[in-house]
Amino acid sequence: MEIQENQLQESWSDTASNSSSTRVGRSGPLSGPLVSNKKTSSKRSARFKEEEYVEITLDVRDDSVSVQNIKGGDSETTFLASQLEKRHPSLGSQLSFRLRQVSQELKRMTSSQRFDKFDRTKSGAARALKGLKFMTKNVGSEGWSEVEARFDDLAVNGALPKTRFGQCIGMKESGAFAGELFDALARKRGITSASISKADLREFWEQITDQSFDARLQTFFDMVDKNADGRITEEEVTEIISLSASANKLSKIQERAEEYAALIMEELDPNNLGYIELYNLETLLLQAPSKSTHLATDSRVLSQMLSQKLVPTKDHNPIKRCGRGVAYFVEDNWRRIWVLALWLAICAGLFTWKFIQYKHRAVFDVMGYCVTTAKGAAETLKFNMALILLPVCRNTITWIRSKTKLGGVVPFDDNINFHKVISVGVAIGVGLHAISHLTCDFPRLLHATDEEYEPMKPFFGDKRPNNYWWFVKGTEGWTGVVMVVLMAIAFTLAQPWFRRNRLKLPKPLKKLTGFNAFWYSHHLFVIVYALLIVHGHYLYLSKDWYKRTTWMYLAVPIALYALERLIRAVRSGYKSVRILKVAVYPGNVLSLHMSKPQGFKYTSGQYIFVNCSAVSAFQWHPFSITSAPSDDYVSIHIRTLGDWTAQLKATFSRVCLPAKSDQSGLLRADVGQGDNKPRLPKLLIDGPYGAPAQDYKMYDVLLLVGLGIGATPLISIVKDVLNNIKHQKDLEEGTVDSDSKGNRRKPFATQRAYFYWVTREQGSFEWFRGVMNEVAEYDQDKVIELHNYCTSVYEEGDARSALIAMLQSLQHAKNGLDIVSDTRVKTHFARPNWRKVFKHVTINHPDKRVGVFYCGAAGLTGELRRLSQDFSRKTTTKFDFHKENF
């Protein structure tokens, strides 16, 4: 008989079954029509250059099949056809199965020879090997022994339930995807039960860890092709898109799954057959551009040479190795070292001076080294209590770093860290002073003989103190005790565990922690300084006014700090701003656009303090400015991380309305649009204040790295660089903007900027969507290189993100938009390889100094700093690392 299309179509509808077994024989998922008689069709599939046929004549008798004739094909075709010549106990139940299997293999073989739209060239093979990996480092590739051990722990009565399959193979976080993978693997083997044996699991494991691309592609196809007919319909594509989006936490893609399924069908099914097949999927995968690596344009030779340079070399001489480490440390931290050394030297000098002074006084004969220790500690305490105010004089520091060159020798970026270091010095001074007095000096005085007490009468009176309470109830005593208590409260609540609510405390105690508790407790310093002055005036052992030096230490710092607070109060009073736009974005982010106060000038990277009386009349909180200096408004983006920001968001959300279809955000309030103007809360701002990121104009090349909401100060820099590009074009065209005085704005040095934004949530890209699109539109010379990373998506090459990558390529090629960020900037998956990032910048900019500016969680700080140091020492490109206090 001749195998024709209609006969095969009928046979495909049959399925061999065996009711006595849990395994059901099914046709292979690659089955499809062997003969395609479509010569009259006006449209030809792009898959075929010309129509070809393979005709097989079979002789079917009883339970045997023999091949009578083969027309077309080659030796491999003959071999496949010969597989039909086998005897079967039940030909009726197996014939259709064998025909479908062979026809599929023939179709796959001939199609791979005819289709020239893709190839298995070196580049294509390289992409294939990197794609569709079911087992990657993200889900665990420990090997069969670990999987077997987990099977023993998770199995129920010797069988592994489907619900625990993902956990067993290392896909614990992708339960739904693992469930579909289980179904596909079980369907392939005819397993209908909801659990598998260890032997079945071993087969599953071998298939999903198969390094062959064809095997991985087949497995993925099986997941989509749920009815195992060798065809994928639009409904099945929609379902797998929803599954992939869910596994990668991409809710917006999940909502538009039908739209994206239609896009895939439009691309892969041009003849409107209503289905696609394996080779279509393979085409899409192999042709998808794989340009997420940042070295696509780099010279291969330069890259290899640089890699060899950066190979760590270990010096076997411990002295040389240690010496080199010390030299590198000093080179990187010399500004911090000399400031700390000077501070420690002053503290040590003051302690020694007082220690020696009291050692030669009569009181030493009674109290001994306890009094010398107490007085030495007191002298350092007075110095540190004066010094600790200077790092928080923000106006002064901003003026010094902006108007002088002291920033080259003084690490102003570390002002808060230095403030914390001094607080440790204060704590040590308080401890030595209080413990020495309370546990040593006072008991010794109480137990002194009359002869020993005689020299003490001018200080403690003619009558000896009769008990310990005498010392505590005196002015010197109670002021000291109250100060210690208040300092302990402020010091404790300033620790990150309390300030950031990291401790799991009962609800009543939970209210005593958080930023509000830190803010209010820190303002107890007003009482502490008042008590310190009183305590320093009423001294037991110093009666002359010029020897009571506490006020001398504190006078200038307190006056300077008081002047700072006065300036802030006056300045914020007339810097009441008008709110222009409010938007609430996914990820609990509030965006505020405000009018720019008259005379308000700032630099990108700086920050302002914000006060909202509707939330708290006293609290001021710092936020980075996200607008550019040349914008006619001031904008900030606030993420809800604490109690104050949560109340602020709730306050503004009440006056917002749901965003329209052409607007970004979840809720919005645009003042000036429409007749119904919302009544918005009043805001006060104070600033701007200096920050590490404001030094970006010093560098020709910028490497900007932001994590989550940490992108806020860097977005301002990107916008400023973009405005500088526009200004340069205006200069070339002769249409240059001038300020109110007629002065032309000077372009700055930055010639290239690399911006890497890493975030967990897809919705985060809405925060700065406008900026991204604006850069893509105006930056024709590619001065700004933008890289968005979504870490909720599995790395490129993982089977769970394979379909997302395919969709991304199609959408970007057709509409110029990225499906993840909905901007013109393509989003990368997982986390960046930071060494490759630095390598990319180094190759592109030899003999340049690159400013690395990072704002985000502290976890990445060490790696970026080490890479900056490593590349600076071993290449001609020098990286200066700056960490924003976040």
Automatic annotation (TrEMBL):
The keyword Transmembrane applies. InterPro entries: Cyt_b245_heavy_chain, EF-hand-dom_pair, EF_Hand_1_Ca_BS, EF_hand_dom, FAD-bd_8, FAD-bd_FR_type, Fe3_Rdtase_TM_dom, Fe_red_NAD-bd_6. This is Respiratory burst oxidase. PROSITE patterns: EF_HAND_1 (PS00018), EF_HAND_2 (PS50222), FAD_FR (PS51384). It is a multi-pass membrane protein. GO terms for molecular function: calcium ion binding; NAD(P)H oxidase H2O2-forming activity; peroxidase activity. Residues 1-10 have a biased composition (Polar residues). Residues 572-695 form the FAD-binding FR-type domain. Gene3D superfamilies: EF-hand, Nucleotide-binding domain of ferredoxin-NADP reductase (FNR) module, Translation factors. Pfam families: FAD_binding_8, Ferric_reduct, NAD_binding_6, NADPH_Ox.
